[in-house]
Design a protein that fits this description.
198 residues, alpha/beta, Rossmann fold, six-stranded parallel β-sheet, 8 helices, globular
């Protein structure tokens, strides 16, 4: 179980959980999207970290440079945070415009300044921004342990590959090399919190 002292050195990093993935999902790939429980799991994780007063909840969001993207800055609804993952006061918000959450942002500096030792990661999409950010976090050595929460990440189908296959293959490539892959229930158990399945 994570102690309160450990939690002060832990961070929950949520990547690109924005309305555009819901309002115009076909822009990002074929449907159905992976991980049907994604929204519920993200909400449960946020509730747990907030209840435990974790001081390091970080929301990274994408502002696309492509005018037709649902995540373009001119698309106010699309680029906004999804309602189940709205940042609260005191939670850090960082914008990016490439796949990595570390390029052109102060994320690395923030994690180092706060002495983060355990980094929990979730978000959209598994095979692009989430994977790229996890790989870079490991390469930069920003935390002693990186945990990618497998059912708190989601993606879309590409070409002949369905969304669940793409997600699973990407997680398999990351697990044990760039991070540890764990489920929401396992993470909540580590935090000493029971998942509410209602």
């Amino acid at each position: 179980m994570v102690s309160s002292a450990d939690l002060s050195k832990s961070a929950l990093l949520l990547i690109d959980i924005q309305n555009g993935f819901r309002t115009n999902p076909s822009y990002f790939g074929s449907l159905p999207r992976s991980t049907p429980s994604f929204e519920k799991n993200v909400n449960a994780l946020l509730a747990a970290f907030r209840a435990l007063r974790c001081p390091n909840i970080i929301h990274v969001y994408h502002l696309s440079t492509h005018a037709e993207s649902p995540l373009h800055p001119t698309n106010e609804e699309g680029q906004s945070f999804a309602p189940y993952a709205l940042p609260q006061d005191g939670e850090l918000k960082i914008s990016k415009n490439v796949n990595s959450a570390f390029i052109g942002t102060n994320l690395e500096a923030v994690l180092r300044e706060r002495g983060i030792e355990r980094l929990f990661v979730g978000g959209i999409t598994t095979d692009q921004c989430v994977s790229t950010s996890v790989r870079m976090a490991a390469n930069l050595g920003v935390a002693k342990e990186i945990i990618l929460i497998e059912d708190a990440t989601a993606t879309f189908g590409k070409g002949k590959w369905d969304a669940e296959t793409i997600k699973d293959v990407n997680l398999a490539g990351l697990d044990g090399e760039f991070c540890g892959v764990r489920g929401t229930e396992e993470v909540l158990s580590l935090l000493g919190v029971e998942k509410n399945n209602s």
